[in-house]
C-alpha cells in the first residue's frame, strides 16, 4: 500500500511547474521512503528520470538535489539496477548550457558515498559520461564548472588509467567520424552552390518538378 502511494501520488507530484513551492517537503517524504525500504530506491530514481524537466533549469537543480539525497540512502544493488539510465541523464546535465545544472551534477563527486558507488561501477559509468566530461574539459565557458570537471576527470584517470585511455580513444574516434560526416556534408552543399551559380550565370533555368495535389478517385 505504501509503495502504491509512492508511485501513484508522491512521484507524480514532481511534474507540476510549481514544484518549487513544496519541493522541500516532497523531497523529505521521498527520502524517508527510501531510508525505510532501500529496495524502493530504484523505483524512486526511475520515477525522477521519468519526470525530469527538459527546459526548466531551476527545476532541474531541484531534481539533482533530491537525487543526491536519495542516492545517499541507496544500497549498491539498487544503484546498479538504475545506474545506466541515471548516468545518461547525469551526462546530459554535465553538458547543460546552464552552468548551475552542470555544477550541481558535478557536486555528486563531493559526496563520499556517491563517489564510492561511482568508483565501484566506473567501467559502466565512465563510458557513458566521458564525452560530456571531455568536451567540457576542453572549453567550458564557466570557470567554476571547468575546474570541477577537471577534478572529476582526474579522479577517473588516477583511479583507472587504462579505462580512461580506452574512453579517450573511443571519444577521439567518434569525433573524427563526426568531422568526416560534417566535411562531406559541407562539400555536397558547396557543389550544389557551384552548380546553381553556373546555371544562374548562363541564364539556364533550374527546373523544379511540380508536385500537384493528390488525385481523388471518381468512384
UniProtKB/TrEMBL annotation:
GO terms for molecular function: protein phosphatase regulator activity. One of its GO terms (biological process) is signal transduction. InterPro entries: ARM-like, ARM-type_fold, PP2A_B56. One of its GO terms (cellular component) is protein phosphatase type 2A complex. Pfam families: B56. It comes from the Eukaryota. This is Serine/threonine protein phosphatase 2A regulatory subunit. The lineage of its organism: Eukaryota, Viridiplantae, Streptophyta, Embryophyta, Tracheophyta.
Amino acid at each position: 500500500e505504501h509503495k502504491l502511494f509512492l508511485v501513484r501520488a508522491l512521484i507524480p507530484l514532481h511534474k507540476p511547474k510549481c514544484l518549487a513551492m513544496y519541493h522541500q517537503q516532497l523531497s523529505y517524504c521521498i527520502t524517508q521512503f527510501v531510508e525505510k525500504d532501500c529496495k524502493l530506491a530504484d523505483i524512486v530514481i526511475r520515477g525522477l528520470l521519468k519526470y525530469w524537466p527538459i527546459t526548466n533549469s531551476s527545476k532541474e537543480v531541484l531534481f539533482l538535489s533530491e537525487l543526491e539525497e536519495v542516492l545517499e540512502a541507496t544500497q549498491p544493488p539498487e544503484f546498479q539496477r538504475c545506474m545506466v539510465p541515471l548516468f545518461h541523464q547525469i551526462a546530459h546535465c554535465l553538458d547543460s548550457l546552464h552552468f548551475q545544472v552542470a555544477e550541481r551534477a558535478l557536486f555528486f563527486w563531493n559526496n563520499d558515498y556517491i563517489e564510492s558507488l561511482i568508483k565501484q561501477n566506473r567501467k559502466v559509468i565512465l563510458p557513458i559520461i566521458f564525452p560530456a566530461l571531455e568536451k567540457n574539459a576542453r572549453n567550458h565557458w564557466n570557470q567554476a564548472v571547468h575546474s570541477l570537471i577537471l577534478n572529476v576527470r582526474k579522479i577517473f584517470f588516477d583511479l583507472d588509467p587504462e579505462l580512461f585511455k580506452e574512453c579517450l580513444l573511443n571519444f577521439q574516434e567518434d569525433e573524427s567520424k563526426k568531422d568526416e560526416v560534417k566535411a562531406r556534408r559541407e562539400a555536397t552543399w558547396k557543389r550544389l552552390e557551384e552548380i546553381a551559380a553556373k546555371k544562374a550565370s548562363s541564364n539556364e533555368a533550374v527546373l523544379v518538378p511540380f508536385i500537384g495535389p493528390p488525385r481523388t478517385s471518381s468512384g
